[in-house]
């Protein structure tokens, strides 16, 4: 009973996840944040076995942070995806594997390119323009096949995302609330996907207001961006 | 003392709760492969002659391709007992038809009849894949392929049986010209229009390939060629037309050729045999 | 194997070898990516393909890159196709009782030496635990293996020139994966000759 998807645009990447938590048919929470920010320009939407999910997400988060502290710059999306994949691939052949699927989204500040990775609990990694995990797969992938195109601007991207969410609401009997972020050169922003025009809202606000709290602000004060 | 009322039973004494069941399995798989290709005015229906069960070869010559009428040939593959019995029943129905209507059944009618016969046993099916080839009423070469419960379709070619997965993509490429395009300015490809010599070469190549890589295919090959009435047989019987090792015979007409008003004779069926590797 | 799908084929030609793969990565019947390469270079005369479980494709590839780099540094020369095959084989056999779900295919041209001025083109394939086969014609692996066998057996002939080999391997792969639900979604072909490698991405059916 989980649903997450992500898509890349010209200079940003969108990530969207449902917010339900529960067991079998019972929902115990409908405002659980299942997107973890892993750095100033990196975040992941995760799902899977409850317990494993948060434990693994925090493990990744702290390791990304550790890398940032040690090197004074964060791990780039490509490298982060390789590290996460390897961690899961080692885990799958261990005594107690993590059962976590995730979408990793990041903005590479060195190349100004968005990145999206589809990663599953086996350590399978796919570099994709758009992706989905969970129940969303069956409706949102075809929606994105139809509407996604290269180098979409933010408004077009959000429109596709809205179409996906509409499709999920229409075709899937389970009700979901969605949590959505956008990563661009300025960092990670929260997006109110339910609003009429999230991008205008986003642009009308001060950049600082919309920024999602990075778990810990970067150490080198005054230079929030990435210095690779 | 209640603790000791039920002393732990030794594992050896434990009763077997589930009785061992023996269930008769009415089906078997006898391997082999068949294929058919339609031409403009002929049809080629072929099969290998090996019959096996598991790793055991039961015989190196078992027939899988059957002449039904002067213009229809049926190939069966799967469980050979079912196949043989099915052909027997089809032939019986064809005989009844001829008695009732004083003419042999047409190809597309045979195809529809096979569907109803197969579907009639929907819940205890003949474990057989059928391919019917022959000459349609309009004189065109035709191939009909069936699944075990009667779903069927007219096609330009079809492979079935153990080596279907090996042969069918090859035929897609060579008969349907899949993943190919004509050179600019050249004629467009039309499936089902190949000359007989090309079709025969493809059939032989398909079976030698399948024999090379599939253990259930081999020993021998029988190729039935049904020709439209009045068609020249030069491209089959002409000097040097047959490949090395091939033997051809013409099958005597089954009908009384009473409808031979145009003086062209009826459809003609030829049987070409060739040896395949026996390992 | 059937979890992610994917197929690889390699063929020998006249002083050249070809290796090709499809580009699909799936999660059972659902297609996830159409850019998942399964063929990787070792050097400009040696390529290998890893069809099978996608997580093991990455893991094995990373592992082999490490082992080949170590070989290169220690030996100060490039690894030969034959040695590389045995390297892959022993890497697989190390995991005899918990194998990588991969059936590798290796294709390469050995560099001419004084002892062997005209080395033969080389292909090899292995099962999941590293049992080597070195065919004289072609090697196939993956979810469309049986289809590839059928078409390759029909189309391949000895001593094909590079461009003819390209056509043969491309037609073999495309027609085989079109009959396989778990393979396809594009293809990539590498033709290795003594003086260059030709790499072409093929358009294919996307269903």
From TrEMBL, chain A:
Keyword terms of this UniProt record: Cytoplasm, Nucleus, Proteasome
CDD domains cross-referenced by the UniProt entry: proteasome_beta_type_2
Per its UniProt record, what Pfam families does this chain match?
Proteasome (PF00227)
Q: Which GO terms describe its biological process?
A: proteasomal protein catabolic process
Source superkingdom: Eukaryota
Q: Which InterPro entries match?
A: Ntn_hydrolases_N, Proteasome_alpha, Proteasome_beta2, Proteasome_bsu_CS, Proteasome_sua/b, Proteasome_suB-type
Q: Where in the cell is it found?
A: Cytoplasm; Nucleus
One GO cellular component, as annotated: proteasome core complex, beta-subunit complex
Q: Kindly report the protein's main subcellular placement as a broad class.
A: cytoplasm
Q: Does the keyword Glycoprotein apply?
A: no
**Family membership:** Belongs to the peptidase T1B family.
Self-association and partners: Component of the proteasome complex. The 26S proteasome consists of a 20S proteasome core and two 19S regulatory subunits. The 20S proteasome core is composed of 28 subunits that are arranged in four stacked rings, resulting in a barrel-shaped structure. The two end rings are each formed by seven alpha subunits, and the two central rings are each formed by seven beta subunits. The catalytic chamber with the active sites is on the inside of the barrel.
> What is the purpose of this protein?
Component of the proteasome, a multicatalytic proteinase complex which is characterized by its ability to cleave peptides with Arg, Phe, Tyr, Leu, and Glu adjacent to the leaving group at neutral or slightly basic pH. The proteasome has an ATP-dependent proteolytic activity.
What is the designated name of this protein? Proteasome subunit beta
Query: Organism, per UniProt?
Result: Kwoniella dendrophila CBS 6074
TrEMBL record, chain B:
- One of this protein's GO BP terms? proteolysis involved in protein catabolic process
Q: Where is this region: Disordered?
A: 254-279
| Pfam family name, one | Proteasome
**Major location category of this protein:** cytoplasm
Q: Which domain of life is it from?
A: Eukaryota
Keywords tagged on the record: Cytoplasm, Nucleus, Proteasome
Q: Which family does it belong to?
A: Belongs to the peptidase T1B family.
Quaternary structure annotation from Swiss-Prot or TrEMBL: Component of the proteasome complex.
Name the chain's protein.
Answer: Proteasome subunit beta
> What organism does this protein naturally occur in?
Kwoniella dendrophila CBS 6074
From TrEMBL, chain C:
Gene Ontology BP terms: proteasome-mediated ubiquitin-dependent protein catabolic process
GO CC entries: cytoplasm; nucleus; proteasome core complex, beta-subunit complex
Annotated compartments: Cytoplasm; Nucleus
- Grouped into one coarse class, the protein's main location is cytoplasm
Q: Which UniProt keywords apply?
A: Cytoplasm, Nucleus, Proteasome
Looking at the Swiss-Prot or TrEMBL record, what is one Pfam family this protein matches? Proteasome
The reply on keyword ATP-binding is no
Q: Which family does it belong to?
A: Belongs to the peptidase T1B family.
Oligomeric form and interacting partners: Component of the proteasome complex. The 26S proteasome consists of a 20S proteasome core and two 19S regulatory subunits. The 20S proteasome core is composed of 28 subunits that are arranged in four stacked rings, resulting in a barrel-shaped structure. The two end rings are each formed by seven alpha subunits, and the two central rings are each formed by seven beta subunits. The catalytic chamber with the active sites is on the inside of the barrel.
Chain's role: Component of the proteasome, a multicatalytic proteinase complex which is characterized by its ability to cleave peptides with Arg, Phe, Tyr, Leu, and Glu adjacent to the leaving group at neutral or slightly basic pH. The proteasome has an ATP-dependent proteolytic activity.
Write the protein's name. Answer: Proteasome subunit beta
UniProt organism field:
Kwoniella dendrophila CBS 6074
